[in-house]
Amino acid sequence: MLRVALKSLLGRKLRLLLSTFAIVLGVAFVAGSLVFSDTLSRSFTALFASTVGDVVVRPEGGTTQQGGPSALTIDASVVDELDDVDGVARVDGNVFAVGVYVVDRDRKVVGGLGPPALAGNWSDAPAAGGEGLALVEGVEPHGPDEVVLDDSTAERAGYAVGDAVPLISPRGESLMQPTLVGIAGFPDGGSLNGATFAAFDTATAQDLFLDGEDVFNDIWVTGEDGVSQEELRAAVAPLLPDGVEAVTGDAAADESASDLLEAISFITTFLLIFAGIALVVGAFLIVNTFSMLVAQRSRELALLRALGASRRQVTRSVLVEAFVLGALGSTIGLGLGVLLAMLLRVVFGQFGLDLSGQPLIFQPTTVLASYAVGIVVTMVAAYLPARRTGRIAPVQAMRDDIALPEASLHRRLLVGVAMLVAGAGVLTTGLFADVPRPGWWVGAGVLLMLLGTATASPVLARPFLALARAVYARLFGTVGNLAGQNSLRNPRRTAATASALMIGLALAATMAIVGDSAKASVDKTIEDNFVGDYVVSNTFGGEFNTTIADQMADVDGVDSVVRQRYQFTEVEGDDDALGAIDPSAVEPLRLDVTEGSAADFVDGTVLVQRSFADEHDLGVGDEVEVAVPSGDQKWPVVGIVEDNPVVFASVVTTLTTLADAGFEEADNALIVFAEPGAGAALEDRLDEVVADLPIVTVKDQAAFAEEQRAPIDQFVLIIFALLGLALIIAVLGIVNTLALSVIERTREVGLLRAIGLSRGQLRRMITLESVVISVLGALLGTVMGLVFGIALMYSLRDEGLEVISVPTGQLLVFVLLSLVIGVLAAVFPARRAARLDVLRAIATE
Predict the structure, then answer these.
(1) Please, which of 196, 199, 506, 629 could form a disulfide with 61 given CB 3.0 to 4.6 Å?
(2) 766-776 burial code (b ≥16 CB/10 A, e <16)
(3) Total-model pTM
(4) CA distance 62 to 630
(5) Residues 203, 537: Cα–Cα separation, whole Å
(6) Burial per residue of 799-818, b for 16 or more beta-carbon CB atoms within 10 angstroms, e otherwise
(7) What is the pLDDT of residues 786-810, one digit of tens each?
(8) DSSP symbol at 598
(9) Nearest 5 degrees, angle CA 342-CA 346-CA 349?
């Protein structure tokens, strides 16, 4: 039986090619995601190991939750004290800053998205994890007019040694143009993963980023040969002042790498979700393929039963074919996954995450996961068709036509409805109940509802297929009637093929509704709450220099400028944003204080937005606990304000309080109020203030709304691109179903041709069958997408997404696109059917 199964598989290579391709795509996405994730992890682990000393001495709370430096520093005298400790080879003080952008020759910012823009003092101190940055060209910087750049940044910006380099800084001078005197790199290989780095001499760095004080952000202590990191840490720790700690370089590197990898872990999760979608859609294709292949081989399998093969042997022979198919698809998919990982590295490089200096990491777990996923999915998908083969009675070999026994449509309807109800319950729980990991509940509910619809689709599709037959008969006569009857002949097959397309379109329709609703909510929010005349912000969502507000306040026609600042930290035990404004800004920002008084809003107090207060049961007089660099603080609530998106944080304190908490001073947004009659020319004058600062923009209400919509469009576009994989597999499913259907109906096709059906009419008949499948999938997918999209947006109404908008035009495009898919999917099967020799087709058994 094993030889029979293998010969059968080899004898039907072309028939199984498309099914194999479905597994290849699914496994490729899994393998590519895992390889890219492992490469990302190894790259950052290696990077942080090369950016710490043997022991790192740092202030407690020296970095913010976003990884940037706080305002807490270490006095330079500590360097001299530690230099005399036994076992210490050298001690180096470090200055570093975040948000110092390099501007290229085309006046565009290098990087900015994702990886940070770093600056600091140049140091040749050895790194704990091997050789760190070292000069590969030029000399070290000396004086305020010299700078060193990392080699990747210099190359991307187009600068060589001797060029003037424009730098934008959030502190000190907002625009500098030092001369590039050196280029740094990793001689042993490696990169900054897309981050940019500008280095000055120590005195200049202190002037620029530490207000000229002789202090450091942290200190590296390098041990003598034979002194371990733990021994070195134990030696220096007793000499440190209060509020300063010493950690080993390994611990500091692991901490930094773990925090960052946890923050970007969503990338791997995101990619694996779409790999799962591709595999689910591919499973429909495999089920369909094996069902049709088993049906076509029914006489052969019945003869094997008549010759003494047991039910288990016949079933096992089909599963052997599935195993070989899964193994082959997994092998090809694994190879394609490596190519996909390379493509992902290039794509993420366009967004600033440059991993070109890190070779791809190919772990054994990737191989095991790829084969496990590919083989298991294929075997499970083939199980039901394989099980049906065991029901073939030996006596059926004596008959001319052999029909495989199948479960009743009534049973499938009951199972499908049960899955739909269960899925709706799980989805509702995830959306509205307070449960752990609600995203998993939502995902499980969506999957159950999609599978339930697919299970019940043969019954749900019958009215549509009957209507399609009637419409086809009216529009296309006998050819249309034949196409309609062929679709009705096996509703299970038609519905199963349509279900694969349904899943992709359901998710696409959901995202279309989410994207359109999010943009409509943004427009409404801005229209209802926009204050002032212009908004000034960083194009990357970060900070900018405080001098800009001062300059804009002096512009002719400006009445006042309101500063807004925020920092991400822990507020009441949850990750959230802590905002800051001047107390005088409460009225111009139209903050509606419904409890308490704005007059009590002074340094050391907070205002809390209504939704946050309700969620944490806070009232006037209660204290809010906030984790800040200077140590956890408890500030009293002096006012509850109605939710206002103009203020970016749920909890707001004063500018002075935020600075005293240990955060460096920089603005995140400015609201500019114009004098009456200032006119449109004011915007031009404001633009002149930031003309040399491409990271800072001035926007009126319309431009601000457009800027807020842009990330939503980009996100939805990425989702559509990834869902395209599932749609490609679904289209392959239609092609595969039609191709196998033509093979199955070879004699029928020959008879139709013999009684006068032309080649053109035959091609039209098969095309109409394909269109029925596509439109059925599109309608089911659109309806499911409407349900999912509206339910999801309804659940988010308390998150500021109050408007539910259904993009009717976009959904209509999906349906029309399905018509095109149906026509294109039929090209190959229709061409093959039209080329069949009539006499040979009639003689086919």
Answers:
(1) 629
(2) bbbbbbbbbbb
(3) 0.77
(4) 9
(5) 30
(6) eebebbbbbeeebeebbeeb
(7) 988 888 887 777 666 778 889 998 8
(8) G
(9) 135
